[in-house]
Design a protein that fits this description.
9% helix, 940 residues, rod-shaped, YdbH, YdbH domain-containing protein, 9 helices, 46-stranded mixed beta sheet, 13-stranded antiparallel beta sheet, mainly beta
Length: 940
């Protein structure tokens, strides 16, 4: 259009000047033409008048623009006119131009202009200065920042009948508005009506490339109409209004890794489309409505699909459809708007949704509900998801609200694979595009994940969790940056109702602790670091150990090959697991604190142990191999001091409850535990120093002063490798009192104790056990043997007034432990040679007054010289004991006032004592009077 206006200006000025100087020479006319061109704003004008008459003019070598690259140049311009009309109407009949060259230039912003010609419209209504115009053989040269184009334009227009114009343009390479066009072949046909209407028909073939995509074999046809082209000329292109249609003919769009860095990655595109997207075809038709400050694009309703479709050779498609009557795209009053529905179908994903977008200046808004169907890829698999996006931005700042519900089947992030983790939540995302940083927080503070399974490749590490809650920490839940190397940080607090962790053959199950963490992930380096703390939880390790109530901190690092971690535990409760088939609880719960380091699949740890009440037990070191679930630890017991109001043995081993109580004394030692495929092993070396306690069991009132070293080859059950020897200060079993002694024993590991030898001093003799075996539970028989007991010391111990004697006794006292009590069953003690019993107490005096027989009986007891003495003993040591005594020997007696010497005598006395303390209270006189039975035989 600018070319036509230029020709009209030149013609009018030339004709007016020619009429004024008709009788001057042609050079003068040429000078006038050039002066008029310069005053009209043409740069470096050039023109030469070669013919001039009252009905026509011819100009040759007409040009304007920079001399090194003229904007326009024509070999000849001719005009036919009537001089009277030219003078009064300033119009010619016919204008012909050509051959010639029209040069167009495109700057970096995409603006098109003709070098050397003024820009801008003339304003107002434009009346054409000719009845007919014809352009022929005019070449078009287009210059761009990169490359250029060549073409040819022709036009023929009559003011009465209208006319046409055509343009052919081709280019090997040319840029326009940051778009690189290649292999371009285009044509345009323009029909101009006499009334000013415009009809356009155009076609385009070629390739295009932008920063994010390349399109090959583009082919489309465009048709349109509008009016008025007269207004278009007057307003410099701003007055045209009309409609148009663009029909696409399957251009191939290529998406390359290097082109997508600003948008997405090839891997993400492969996830969406189910293939590594190389090219796609765009098909459809767009209806365009345009006018001053108005531009609207509709998806054509005349096509079969009423949609715009992007398809791949493999069958994936992305289809856009209209939302009601809303335009697909609209621009009006400085605002850009878009509204559409879309459907994605591919081997990777099926999705559908809608979007409403609006942009004004540097602000924009979007609302988009999206449903994603089930799909599977190497990186991501979903059962189905729904996303509701609402976002707005001003300049580089973006704020988005996202409601997400997903049936996640699999997601692969570096070496971590997450499976079966459906979740839902509402999130707020804020992004700064200048800083290239986005932050994510949970809008409800926490969001839920129904369950989840994770596996870390190369480590044989599997995690299973259910009813998971992930909550915001003090800052954002996620921070993602993409400046240079992309990085992602996640900070929050995660908890689960229950779960399990399997690392090789090491398995932990139960309620995981609450984990507060700060994690960072660098995908380029495949590096993950996590720091944080843990609290509470209750997990069982390999169905053997329970760990609960943990308080601690950790530091974790993972790269493409290795995994390391450090942990500091302030508090951890450790207990023996009590399953349905568990044996007796052998170890009491303890509290631990310490450090642990994980390197690959090996964990080394150090710790200190206390009881739940805070009594220190000792410290230890250990190692655990995750892959084989094997390891060992040695616990050093440091000066364990027992006291009735402090630490007690049954607080270390509950198996001792009811067996050993109210202990005092001290103990040192070391305990070693080892575990693995061959089972569980334990050894110990314990140094006992003057340990006293009530027991063992209720049968023993108290054991005092146990000292010595005990070496155990197994603690579960307690086992020794051969015989051990300990010293005991004394044993109190109510009726049975034992002094300081030595016990040599072994523990074969079958819940029994084997006694090789045990000896205690007893009334001048000895109470001993030899080659005996007794069980820890049920009935136990200890065959006590009394040796060389001094009868005089026995009577001295009971301290009965008037009772004394002499003699040596030996025998057997079978001691049976049953139900927490001890009893002697069928005990028998016999004299070893002759002896004597003397009783001159108060009972004898009272018996003399009671009758002759009683007096005779007690006369014998004043000095009974026995040749045999036998005592049977039966009864509980803490209850009634029955004594059966038999004396056979000689004594002196007074009968009818006659003294008889060396009278043979046989005594049988049955004595039942309900409480052994009766024998210590000097009441033997009453007991004898009520219990004694005597058989007296006189040979004379």
């Amino acid at each position: 259009m600018r070319t036509v206006r230029f020709l009209a200006i030149v013609l009018v000025l030339t004709v007016i000047l020619a009429a004024a100087v008709w009788f001057f020479r042609l050079p003068l006319a040429g000078w006038g033409v050039r002066a008029a061109m310069a005053s009209a704003g043409l740069e470096a004008p050039q023109a030469r008048v070669t013919a001039l008459s009252l009905d026509g003019i011819r100009l040759e070598e007409v040009a304007a623009g920079p001399k090194e690259a003229r904007g326009v140049s024509f070999e000849a311009i001719e005009a036919d006119f009537h001089w009277r009309r030219l003078w009064t109407e300033r119009a010619v009949d016919t204008l012909r131009a050509g051959p010639g060259v029209l040069r167009l230039r495109i700057d970096e912003t995409g603006r098109i202009f003709v070098p050397g010609l003024p820009t801008g419209g003339s304003g107002g209504d434009v009346s054409l200065p000719f009845d007919r115009v014809s352009l022929s053989d005019v070449a078009v040269l287009v210059e761009a920042p990169v490359g250029g184009a060549r073409g040819r334009v022709s036009a023929d227009y009559d003011i009465q009948t209208g006319g046409e114009a055509s343009l052919d343009l081709s280019s090997d390479k040319i840029t326009w508005s940051h778009v690189l066009l290649q292999n371009v072949e285009s044509t345009a046909q323009l029909s101009l009506s006499a009334e000013g209407g415009v009809t356009l028909s155009a076609s385009f073939e070629g390739d295009a490339q932008t920063d994010s995509l390349s399109a090959r074999n583009i082919a489309f046809n465009a048709t349109g109409e509008g009016g008025s082209w007269r207004d278009l000329i007057a307003a410099d292109g701003k007055g045209l209004a009309g409609t148009a249609r663009i029909e696409f003919e399957t251009p191939e769009i290529e998406l390359r890794d290097s082109d997508l860095q600003a948008l997405t990655s090839a891997a993400q595109m492969q996830t969406v489309f189910g293939e590594k997207l190389q090219n796609a075809a765009l098909a459809g038709a767009l209806d365009i409505v345009f006018g001053e400050d108005l531009f609207q694009v509709y998806l054509s309703a005349d096509t079969d699909t009423e949609a715009l479709a992007l398809t791949t050779p493999e069958g994936a498609s992305l289809t856009f459809a209209a939302q009601g009557n809303a335009p697909f795209y609209a621009r009006a009053n400085g605002r850009d708007m878009a509204s559409f529905q879309f459907v994605l179908q591919s081997d990777g994903a099926d999705a559908k949704g809608a979007a409403d977008l609006e942009r004004e200046g540097d602000s924009w808004r979007i609302a988009a509900p999206i449903d994603i169907g089930a799909f599977t890829s190497e990186a991501l698999s979903l059962d189905g998801s729904s996303i509701d996006i609402s976002a707005e931005a001003t300049g580089p700042d973006i704020v988005a609200d996202l409601a997400l519900k997903s049936g996640l089947r699999k997601a692969k992030i570096g070496r971590l694979t997450i499976n079966d983790a459906p979740f839902n939540g509402a999130f707020r995302i804020t992004a700064d595009m200048n800083a290239q940083r986005a932050r994510v927080v949970s809008k409800t503070d926490c969001f839920n994940i129904d369950r989840g399974r994770g596996r870390l490749d190369g480590q044989e590490l599997d995690i299973r969790l259910s009813e998971i809650t992930l909550c915001n920490a003090e800052g954002p839940l996620v921070v993602y940056t993409w400046t240079g190397e992309a990085a992602c940080t996640v900070s929050g607090e995660i908890a689960a109702r229950d779960g399990s962790v399997r690392f090789g053959k090491t398995v932990a199950m139960g309620r995981p602790p609450v984990v507060r963490f700060d994690a960072s992930y660098h995908p380029a380096q495949k590096q993950t670091t996590i720091k944080g703390g843990v609290a509470n939880g209750a997990m069982t390790i390999n169905d053997a150990i329970e760990m609960s109530g943990v308080i601690g901190e950790f530091d974790f690092e993972l790269d493409a090959q290795d995994m390391t971690a450090q942990a500091s535990v302030n508090r951890l409760r450790i207990a023996q697991h009590q399953g349905p088939e568990s044996r007796l609880l052998m170890i009491a719960p303890v509290m631990a604190s310490g450090e642990a380091q994980l390197e690959g699949a090996e964990t080394r740890f150090s710790y200190a142990l206390t009881t739940p009440e805070g009594f220190r037990l000792g410290a230890g070191l250990g190692v655990h191999h995750m892959q084989t679930a094997s390891g060992e630890t040695t616990l050093t017991l440091e000066n364990l001091t027992f006291s009735p109001v402090g630490l007690q043995p049954n607080r270390i081993s509950p198996a001792l409850k009811g067996i050993v109580n109210n202990a005092d004394g001290r103990m040192d030692g070391a305990v070693r535990f080892a575990w693995g495929a061959s089972g569980f092993e334990s050894t110990a070396e314990l140094s006992l120093e003057k340990i006293s306690f009530a027991g063992p069991t209720q049968a023993v009132t108290r054991t005092n002063g146990v000292s010595g070293t005990v070496r155990l080859t197994n603690l579960f059950p307690v086992t020794t490798n051969g015989f051990q020897t300990i010293n005991v200060a004394s044993v109190d079993m109510d009726a049975l009192q034992l002094g300081a002694g030595v016990i040599t024993f072994e523990l074969p590991g079958d819940n029994t104790v084997g006694i090789s030898e045990a000896a205690f001093p007893w009334f001048g003799g000895q109470l001993a056990v030899e080659d005996a075996t007794a069980g820890f539970s049920g009935e136990a028989l200890i065959p006590l043997k009394a040796r060389n007991v001094d009868l005089e010391q026995v009577f001295d111990f009971f301290d009965v007034e008037g009772l004394s004697g002499e003699g040596i006794l030996s025998g057997d006292l079978p001691l049976i432990f049953e139900g927490g009590r001890a009893r002697i069953e069928n005990g028998l003690i016999q004299s070893q040679g002759p002896g004597v019993i003397r009783y001159v107490g108060q009972a004898a005096t009272q018996a003399s007054a009671a009758g002759e027989n009683a007096k005779v009986a007690f006369d014998f007891l004043r000095d009974l010289r026995f040749s045999e003495m036998e005592v049977t003993i039966n009864g509980a040591l803490d209850g009634e004991i029955k004594f059966g005594m038999r004396f056979e020997g000689f004594g002196d007696v007074t009968v009818r006032n006659r003294n008889v010497k060396d009278v043979p005598v046989l005594y049988r006395i049955n004595l039942s004592v309900e409480n052994i303390d009766l024998l210590r209270q000097a009441n033997i006189s009453e007991v004898i009077k009520s219990r004694i039975q005597m058989e007296l035989s006189d040979e004379d």
